[in-house]
Amino acid sequence: MMAAAELAENTEQYWKNGYTVLRGLYSADEIAAFRAECDRLWSLDGLDDDLNLRTEFRRGPDGRFVFDRLDPVLDISPPLNGAATHPALMDALGTILGGSAEILKAKLIRKEPGVNGYAAHQDFLYWKWLDTDPDALCTVVVNLFPSDEQSGGIGFYRGSHQRLLPGPPENPEGDFDPAQLDPSTIEVPALDAGDVLVFHSLAPHFSGPNNSDRPRTVLLPSYCVTDEAGLYQRYYKREVVRRCKEMVGFERYFATLDSVESA
Ligand SMILES: O=C(O)CCC(=O)C(=O)O
Question: Transmembrane residues, as ranges (predicted)?
Fold first, then answer.
């Protein structure tokens, strides 16, 4: 467990800046075991199948689709489930958020060298349907390798987590336009393997491409302070239907299908 004084400082930073970094929650052996587990997961049969609803793709260095995330992941990975529900983490989250946290969702993102990052957004935009106070929701980033700006680490606009920012005029319900925020508030925390970022559901964040020569692998569980049972089940039942309805992640499948039709 973390020392109370250190955790008090983390709690203050979290509410002031919208994020904080927790250190020393996992042992070096635990991190090594999580990495080995990621290698196992990445070699499972069928991950590269376009119709696998668990996997999503991103554009790689040569413009081709590369498989970059497993979402959900906890149900097929007891070790990563252990990471996301680790007593030291749950204890720290309880203090920071001021109440007992339940897992909402969890994904594993492995950003290979050269692979693109994620445009600026606030997670809460995607969770409006939960009808929950944004202060009750957060995301945790468990870093399995060192991460910084060069390797495509996550960057934040410090202290801009007070409200949901509007999208651009042509898409007011969409992700906010980063031009409305002050670029001098951007920080990309440099993290060691095992460091844990915790960020508020309204914290505006983004990431760049991985320009390093190592994968930047992170486990990203999100949590909610709630008494409601079955939140995780509710989230993924809705998410699986959404992906099918909105055809999320099927781009490569459709491209292949079109080439078959015209052959
Ligand atoms: O892994 C990354 O680089 C960013 C991920 C992210 O921002 C998200 O999934 O919300």
Answer: none
Give the integer Cα–Cα distance in Å for 213 and 114: 8
Q: What confidence tens digit (pLDDT) does each residue in 199-227 have?
A: 999 999 999 999 999 889 999 999 999 99
Q: CA-CA distances (angstroms) from residue 204 to 201, 245, 252?
A: 8, 27, 29
Quick one: which atom of ligand 1 is closest to the CA of 154? Answer: 3
Here the tokens at position 255 are 């491209």
Beta strands in the chain (DSSP E): 19-22, 55-59, 65-70, 101-111, 137-143, 154-157, 186-187, 196-200, 205-207, 216-225
Q: Is the pTM of this model over 0.90?
A: yes
Q: Which amino acid is at 227?
A: D
Task: Provide the β-strand partners of residue 222.
Answer: 105, 139
> Is 50 a residue whose pLDDT tops 90?
no
Of 66, 118, 217, 239, best ligand 1 pocket probe by most atoms within 8 Å of the beta carbon: 118
| pLDDT score of 254 | 87
Protein residue with least CA distance to atom 1, ligand 1: 109
Give the CATH number of domain 4-261: 2.60.120.620
